[in-house]
Amino acid sequence: MCLVIAGAAGAYFYTAGDKTQIIEDEMFHQATVGNFVHDVVEKGEVESARNVDVMSVVRGYRDLNNFEILWVIEEGKMVEPGDVLVRLDSSALEEETKLQRLDLSGSVAGLAKSQNELEAAQIAMTEYVDGLFIQEKQELEAEIEFAMETMRRAEEYYAYSSRLAAKGFVTSLQLEGDKFAVRKAGLDRDNAMLKLKVLIEQTKEKKIKELESAIGVAKADLESAKERNSIEQKRLDFFLEQIKNCTITAPTSGQVVYANERGNREASEFIVEPGSTVRERQTIIRLPDYTAMQVHVLINESRVALVDVGMKATITLDAFDGLKLTGTVSKVNEYPEPISRFGAQVKRYAAVVTIDGTPRQIKPGLTANCAIHIEKLNDVLMVPVQSVFPYGDDYYCMVRKTAEEIEPRKVDVGSSNNRFVVINDGLEAGEYVSMSPRRLMDTVDMPELAPEQLNPNDQEDGNPKGRQGRGNPAPEKSPGQGERTGNATQLVDQVLKKFDANNDGVLSSDELAASGDEKYTNADQDGDGMIQRNELIAVTSTDEALEEDPVRIAEDQSPQAVGGAQ
Prior knowledge:
single chain; alpha+beta; six-stranded antiparallel β-barrel; 6 helices; 26 strands; 27% strand; disordered C terminus
């Protein structure tokens, strides 16, 4: 769009009560019919939609949770399945393996001891039931028989002694001794029979219980030793497996792409290189599928509501001038990405744009400018957004009727973007509108506003204050500025705070020169040598639009506008 300055006098004058006004230093834009395009443009990064992620599967142990990269394959190299991609430091795991082998040896010895103790307990049971018990039983049975035989003989001898004593051949003392022998033999017989009964009914049962208990304890010790040995063996196998996992190989063929992370969160940066440490399940290398590529973009929260799945997009790459790709929005996250406490506190939402027909030269990691097409209207009347200002409940433009006359014109506005607003009614193609209409409000008669349309902040004691010219004050926000006015005004406030040395709310040429920022040198629209706040907002909003919409600007087919006095 060509914006030209009408006249060169550098000032304008005001005649009270007269609509005719000579404007010698004013920028105008010619309302023209063209194609209106509303895009949301964000930068993003090209990535594969179908990546094979090669990650570390080395599991941590105790305090050993991160492993250092000793060697990594060169990025961009083509690999085949089984090719070594990364070697991690396994020295700590090897030390743990040595210690574990010692623990395993101890558990093997304990297992052998428990096995022998169980076998000994089982042998002791067999030994008693089939040997010692029978032996003791037989000994007692023999003792009983011997006692019974002794008793029989003692009884016979006592009977013989009794007959001899009756004939006077044996004294009474001898007879008493033979009688005692009979009684003793009976006691011996009874005692032997009791011992046999105790052996069969009690001693055997008690001994078997003791042996069974010993067997049970031995079995439990054996199971414990087996479990301990199994755990020690598994732990050794674990270390051996982790040592093996320290050598990472390619699961499939492809081209190596490092999974570097430069995220927003603290301590989240990860660069794939020797010396870097990786955690379990952290992706180190990606093997992308170049037949399915996409762009990962972060959309400002002020524009994310405009974007929806299925919208078409145009993609350009910083690496390839002139190359334009088409794509489709396939995903928009519902929640914002994490924000770093040290970065800008602007929330952004991740979105994915699938690239249609990916060319072979497109590779992951390329910076992309993604213009998501929100709306497109053909053959509509358009003017710059700064040419339209709200007044009460309506919108107005300052239309140049002649070289000396400005007319405030109510317009019906339609869609808008960062640069243009569609005019549905109120203007004709070819008419010229002011680029800074607020400056002209002192020169024209604006319609009176109803009390309910006045800004409460501009009223005092029921009377409007700050009235401009012959009308009432208008709000500051213009159509199409919803996406940028907040950022622009914040930036202007920061600029004024930083460079406005005398705090008068304007920047002089000396203050601007001291700032060293050439971005605002053309902001002095009225040529009075002083840069007002509204002039800073206008140039800041325009610069933001140019910075944010490079793809849309390149594609803009709207007719060139002309301005200035003819």
